[in-house]
Structure formats: structure tokens, C-alpha cells
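Re: export button greyed out
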Amino acid sequence: MSLVAFREVVKKYDTVLTVNHLTFTIGEGEIFGLLGPNGAGKSTTIHMLSGLLDPSGGDILVDGFSIRKQPVEVKKRIGLVPQELAIYETLTARENVTFFAKLYGLKGSLLRERVDEALQFVGLLERAKDKPSTFSGGMKRRLNIACAIMHRPKLIIMDEPTVGIDPQSRNHILESVKALNKMGSTVIYTSHYMEEVESICTRIGILDQGKLIAVGTKDELKRQLGQQEKLIFEIDRHLESAIIEMEEHPSVQQLDVRDQGLTLEVSVKESPSILQDLLFILQKHDIHLRTLTRVEPNLESLFLQMTGRTLRDE
Amino acid sequence: MLVWWTTVYYELIKYSRMRSVLILLIGLPLLLILLLGSAFDTEIKPAKVALYVADHGEMRESIDQLWNDDAIKPYVKVLDAGSEKEVQDWVREGIADFGVHIPVNFSKQLSAGETAAWFTYSGRYGEKNLAAEAVVNGYLGNANMRMAALRTLGPAAFEASDDDRSTTQATESPILTHNLGYGDNQGFGKTSALQYYSAAYLIMFLLYGGMSAAIALLNQRESGTLQRLYAVPSSFKANVFGIIAGAMLLAALQAVIIVAFTTYVYGVDWGGHLGWIALICLFTIAAGAGFAIIVSSFVRSKKTLQSLFTIIVFSMTFVSGGMVTGIDRIIGGVGKFTINYWANESLREIMSNTGLSGVSYHVGILGLIALALTIIAVLRMPKVVKYHA
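Workaround output, generated via the alternate export path:
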């Protein structure tokens, strides 16, 4: 069952179409990764979903409620972790979470219980009385998350939550995302870091120029695009006849020769016997193998193939 | 209402922890009022006169009458010394501004028809010396004239004194105490310099206080907390107006502190009518907040707003005469196009107790300005709070 449904969503600024008839769904319990380079329409999409921007056309449904017609009901179900550190430096960690909790209508003992729970979850309960100005970047990011989860939202939107932090804090945040998901929250996660998206997201959508150009699991996306595996052979001598024979193999898509013929980069289609066949050719020509590296297709290369740009392109 | 109040409450907590802002909004105006008000204040304070009367003769009664006379109290305050040395010590140490020693044979000399003199000791301050000498010379001049009439003698003799003390004697021209008074108040109108600058700087800093509302909004827009407030299910308008109300409450608190502090510590007479003063402050804060929100709707960053608004408020204060009196004689009626002019005039009318008809006229204009700016600010608000608007 889908928790979020984008239906022909459009956002226009004057004549510029930032989001172009976006239609897709996100199922309950998913961690959905939204990928796209700067200017792809990622932030605009998230801003429309969180109520910051009104769509120029179409509608977004969250748990069956329309962002246009029932924005309050939608907002009750959402916890937004903005890209910026949306916390107050002059309030303590507890005051920050308490302030937002009150705006979600929590009060009394439930308020205190949920505030403690959120701070405990992000590992800041012991620093609850301290101001964020005394925190590291990672701790501030965690507080940023605590301010979005204290009301136990069904949908958590995380917009680049790991920007500019140390690896330890990044791991802590990624583990938190998984834990929140296990506790029942659906997560929409945007990031520039492909490896993060690959490691935690159950499904991925790729946005480019306001359009969703691909959506699916990592494997589905690879299959969808026929992504090639790459085999890199380092050999002891160069022999032209062996290379010609390898190129003629039906599963070899492309063969590049480097390092004066001692390195062969072979792009191959999925085939159960391809590695065995190529090794046999080398052996037949009395060529000895020094190293063999197998490069699996990743989201970065997938993204590059689809958009012609890397994720960090300006 | 709960959302609004929650936002106001947390805004006030945030302000209470910004020491630099509090110092700037409350400490700085108090300092400026003190410095400028004191520098231009021409009121002569009573001179502290150390007095030792050794004479117990027939003139003693008239001497005591002189120093206890109510007429001289605005100009001199008598400190009774136990000896001539004590008089000298007090003047040297600054305990007294001026010293007078009336010698033991003063009455006797006058009775004998001889020239009589008092010994005086000048202190550090010229105007205090002048005030005390005027009292002394006034008395001695009269006394010597009476004696001269009795004796039907010629001009009295003049005696020089020791190196470290001067003598004041009967032949000097009498300077009557009633000649002492307040000097020209240098364009402060019916108010004193302290009153004038108290009003001017209260208004200037209330406008800055109003600017805090716009800065708070831009701050929250830049930090992303405004975006987060959008995403909560409570009323976004209530949140925004809570942020503005927090800044306006801080400005109101600023007004209360400045008025109370200047009243009780600097002795500024605000002229009563606290209700009117509160209304003027409220209109000024609203006008300042409205104006700052309008300006911030045309700028992208908090720093630009601060620079631009500071220049605007500073210029308005200057052309309205808040820094240099009589500026209207140079630039004409330009000051009337400022918020400061109408607010300052309202306060000065109250301070000078010239009746409430003038006050209500000026406050009325100020209220209309505040209303117009508030309406425009509300219309421009989406440009301030919505980044993509």
C-alpha cells in the first residue's frame, strides 16, 4: 500500500518548469532515495511535499490526504529534517525539541516522554541541557533529526542529513534512519552520497531537470538500463591476436587497452561463462594473468549513464 | 493562541540569552542619553561651600541669616567646617567646591569702622566659584555700603592677602544672587538637554527594537527553522506573528527600562501621562517593525537589512533633530517626513506640560504612519517568510 502518491505534480516559476509532471508512489515502510544533481528539482519536490511550496499543478497524497486540500492532516504525518541545521543556537537541545513538540500539539507528561525519547534516540539525552553552540557538526545534525521525530511521524523526509559531518556521526545517522524505518516510519532520503543511498534505500528515484527518469530498486534500475559489468585484467605481455579473439566474444561490449597493452578493461554483458571464456583465451595464448579486478555497476555510473552528469555537477 | 504564545515565549527566552543584543538595545541608549544630556545641560548645580564662622560678635546673627536664607539655597549648599584648616582641606580634597572663613574679629572691625574682609578659597569649577562668590560679595557689598554711609568716608581700602588665599572685600562691585539663573538651553526648546536626548534616543532605539522583528524572521529563513515551522501542522501565520510579537515585546521592555532608568537615575522628567507615553512607544515599535519588514522584503540577507535599516534610522534621527538641535533651520521641514519627528514631538509636548491637544495631534499622525506601515508590511510579508515567493 502506498503512503505517498505524487500525481502529475508540476511546479513552475514564471515560465521555468522546475518539476515536470511528477508521478510516482512510495510504499509504506520503504526507505526511498531521491537522487538528482543540483537543480534537478529535488528540493522543490520536497518543499511541495512538506507544505513549504504550493504545487502549480497536480496533487500529492500522504496517507490518503491531499496536500492541497488537507495540508494540516498531511503535516501531522510528516517529520521534516531540512538540509540546513534548522535548530535554535540559543535554546538548549531539550528546549529545541520541546518547542517543536509543542507546535505538534504535544503537552504534559506525553510531551516530556517524547522529548526524552527523541533525544535518547539520537544519543543526545546526556547533553539535553547544553546549547547547540557547544555541539559538534554531527551532534547538531542529530539534534536536527530529533526535532523532526518526536511526534512519531509516519513519513520522515530527510534532505541531505549527512552534509559536512564526520564519518562516525554519518554512520550514527544512517543507523538511525534504519532504526526509524524498523520502528515503522517510511523515509524519503536525499543525498549526494551514492554509497549512502545504495546502502540504506530500498528503492531509488532519479530526478533530472524536474522529471523522474528512473525509479526502482538498485537491481531493477541496473536491469532497466542494461548496466555493464567491467573486468580489468593486468597481464604479463601484450598479444594482438588474443585481444582480437577476446573482442569477438559475443558478451564483450567494449575492450580498452591501456599501459602499453598490459591492462585490458573489458565491459561485458551479464553472462554466466564470460569470465571463464576470457581466462581461457589468455591461457591459450600463453599470457599470464597478474591481477583481475571485477567492477560492479554502481549508482554513480548508473547516474552518469542516464544523465550525462555526475551527482555533484553544478 | 497557544501556538502564538508558545512562539512568543521561546522568542523571549532566545532574546534573554543574547547579551550583546540586550546591551545594544538597552545599555547603549542609556549611555548616549547620559553623555549627550550631561554635555549639553547648562543647569548650575548648587556649589558646596565649606563655611567656618569664627566671629561671635554682633554681626553673627546677620551672617547666620545669610547662609540659612532660602534665596541662596539653589546656588550654594553650606557644609559647616570646624576650623579654617578644615575649610582649606575640604576644598583641596574636593569635598567642597568653595571655602569661606569668617575671621574672629570681623564684627569688631566693622564696629570700629575698619575695612572688613572674609577669606575665601576657590575650588576647581569656575561656575561653582562664581555662584559662591556672588553670595559672599552680595553680603559684603551691602555691609560695607552701610558702614561707609555711617562713617561718611571715602573709598574703602583694598588689602592683598597671602599667596595661597584671596580676600573678598567690601569695595568690590556687589553681584546680586538673583542675577544667577539658567543660561541659554541651546535649542532644546521647553525641555532640558537630558529630556531632549532621552526622547530622541528612546525613539531611535525603539525603531532598532522594531527591526529585531524583521531580523528574527530573516534569521529563521536563513537557518531553515522557518521552513521547519512551515512543516508543522500548527498555523504558520501564528508562528510568524509570534516571532514578530516577541521582538515587539522586547522593544516594549526596552522602553519601560529606558523610561524608568532615566527617571530614577538621571532624574529625567517625562511629564507624567504614562498612557500617552506607552501609546507613543507602541506606535513607534509598530512603525519600526513594519518599516523593517518592508525593507527586508526587498533584500535577501540579514546583513543587508541591518546595514540598510541602520542607515535609514540614523538618517531619520539626524534630520528629525535627534542628534543636532536646530537642524530644521538648515534642512527645513524634511524632518517631518520621519517617524522620529512625530514621536519626538509627542514626547516633548508631554515633557513640557503644554497641554494634551498638541500631544494628541502628534500622536495621531504617528498612529497613522504606524498603521500605514503595518498594512504594507502585512502585504509584503510573504516575500519575507517564503524563500521562493
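Chain A has eleven helices and 14 strands. The button fix ships in the next patch.
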